[in-house]
Predict the structure.
Amino acid sequence: MQQVLSNRIITLSESETRAMSKKSRELESQGKNVINLSIGQPDFFTPDYIKEAGKKAIDENYSSYPPVSGYADLRAAICRKLKRDNGVDYKPAQIVVSTGAKQSLSNVIYALINPGDEVIVPSPYWVSYKEMIKLAEGNAKFIETTIDSRFKITPEQLEAAITPKTKLFLFSSPSNPTGTIYSKEELRALADVFARHPNIYILSDEIYELINFNGKHESISQFEDIRDRVIIVNGVSKGFAMTGWRLGYIAAPQFIAEACDKLQGQITSATCSISQRASLAAIEADPNTSEDLKKMNVAFLKRRDLVYKLLQEVPGFKSYLPDGAFYFFPDISELIGRSNGKVTITGASMLCDYILDNVYVALVAGEGFGNPKCIRLSYATSEEKLIEGINRIKTLLADFK
Ligand code: PMP
Ligand code: GLU
């Protein structure tokens, strides 16, 4: 049969995070009591003051196309936020608002990457990075890390990965899937490497900025000697419990912002006007004084400590206490090859399927994040569900020797 779909789409992998959520919804619709620890989205509702701003925007007839890069007052508010929270100076012309940080990332990758350009990505990485790079016909070059270094790369590893074809470095801190955060000193050491390689751009995904148990967020954009090559990606999905509103943004050198504006102008025009007005309310509020954000962060911290304790009791799961985001990424190497007499564990993907099919707990296999010996557990759900879900896994795995 003639191939109808493009090679581009045929070689594209489905998002593993979305696939696991789809599978758990299907099981739920068959009446199964599924505990979904797969998707990374806060289980809180969007704070009321943000919802009110969205309702007001509807009443005030924000119903026509917004400017491609976002409303001027929203972009100005993003600049104030970057100064207030991160100490960095940006002009509205350097800001592009998009349909989620996902679109922000893909805009930048499309704007910068020619076929054959290399993009260095520390592994484990967020699932969509690899596929976005592939769509742009770039070559992802992964730097492998292990749980022993809390999945952080060293400056030596970075230096060794650089070639004349390296165009971009892409990472997230706080990290999805590991929850690891690079300290200011560690970021400075990476920045020193970039300072020696003036043709490399740095795409810094800071979407988990507000879910940080170490205190102050550190952005690699703070280093002035490389700032003219840093592109910050952020948004409202995680910190403000606004995943469905679909709003993300970049702060970038102006020529990159203009390139993203041109691309977006041909593809989505702009993100939803109502979301933009609601996000303006979100971004204007100082996170240090917002009671709503504090409540969410207290809950995430409590859950993190609870899950850490519970995971110590799961046979074969090796974890550490993550610094931020809302994920654990336990190493399950010890379980590979163990059997219960009927079934043998062959890897993370098989283990996640086995857990979902038998005790209805949805996790995401590490393969999609570049590490087949780990699994990802999202704790953005209630303590009751976390306790019940992890207990189910513990009981299931107790028979594997
Ligand atoms: N980057 C990372 C690391 C993420 O985990 C996510 C999750 N959705 C995104 C970007 C995209 O976020 P958004 O909802 O703003 O598209
Ligand atoms: N970023 C979230 C996750 O990793 C949401 C899913 C997605 O956008 O792919 O689960």
Summary: The pocket of 4'-deoxy-4'-aminopyridoxal-5'-phosphate (ligand 1) is lined by residues 40, 100-102, 126, 172, 176, 205, 207, 235, 237, 243, 248 (CB under 6 Å). The radius of gyration is 21 Å. The CA atoms of residues 237 and 244 lie 7 Å apart.
